[in-house]
Amino acid sequence: MNIQSLAPWTHSEPAQWQRERDPFMTLQQQMNRLFDDAFRGVGGSAAARGVWPAVDVTDNGDHLRVDAEVPGLNEDDLEVTLKDGVLTLSGERQTENADADKRITERFMGRFVRQIPLGFEVDEDNVKASFDNGELTITLPKTNGDGAKRIEIGKAS
User: Fold this and answer.
1) How far is residue 31's CA from residue 133's CA, in Å, rounded to a whole number?
2) Can you tell me the distance from the alpha carbon of 141 to that of 122, in angstroms, rounded to the nearest whole number?
3) Looking at CB atoms within 10 Å, which of 37, 42, 69, 73 has the fewest?
4) Who contacts 63 (Cβ-Cβ below 8 Å, separation ≥6)?
5) Could you give the CA distance from residue 101 to residue 103 in angstroms, rounded to a whole number?
6) Which domains does the chain have, with CATH numbers?
7) pLDDT the model gives residue 52
8) Cα–Cα distance, 87 to 114 (Å, whole number)
9) CA 72 to CA 135: how far, in whole Å?
10) Angle at Cα 48 formed by Cα 42 and Cα 50, nearest 5°?
11) Which of 106, 51, 95 is nearest to 73 (CA)?
12) What is the pLDDT along the chain (157 residues), one digit of tens a residue?
């Protein structure tokens, strides 16, 4: 939110309407707008919160499936890594017309990093990723067991 959105003269409403209204009503509307802007990103969809790309993580028993929407990208624009139980999606979405005189820009452009804690031990050697028509699908097989390794105890010599 910028400070100009709080000033009553920066809105598209004609000045004559602003003068005729009750000043307390104007104050109340500005306070409502202030709180609406402050709490707009709480809850709601990932896109509404500014988290990109939007993902779905599904637990299918023996494996996890992660689906990410990445429209406008191809496989070469993306990188997928897995380290310490955290799946990381990163990449860059290039601007088509950097020189253009844009009036409104709502599409996400630039670098992004999205980290997803998995909460399960994953068989890292058998992770598979596929990409089709702007949809990235990652299949992460779970390991058999709790990830603990039994250590044999031998006699001291």
Assistant:
1) 44
2) 6
3) 42
4) 139, 140, 141, 142
5) 7
6) 3-39 (no CATH), 48-96+108-141 (2.60.40.790)
7) 73
8) 8
9) 10
10) 95
11) 95
12) 555 555 555 555 444 444 456 777 778 778 877 877 666 655 544 444 456 788 999 999 899 999 999 888 888 888 999 998 899 999 887 776 666 676 676 666 778 889 999 888 888 889 999 998 889 999 999 987 655 666 676 777 6
pLDDT for res 110: 78
Q: What is the DSSP string of 75-127?
A: GGGEEEEEETTEEEEEEEE--S-TTS--S---S--EEEEEEEE--S-B-GGG-
Residue 80 class from Cβ within 10 Å (0-12 exposed, 13-18 middle, 19+ buried)?
middle
Query: What 3-state DSSP class applies to 70?
Result: coil
Q: Tokens 């003269």 appear where?
A: 9
Q: Which amino acid is at 53?
A: P
Closest CA to 65 of 143, 149, 141, 2: 141
Q: How many residues does the chain have?
A: 157
Residue 53's pLDDT is 83
User: And the tokens for 64?
Assistant: 């996890």
CB count, 10 Å around CB of 52? 18
pTM beyond 0.85: the answer is no
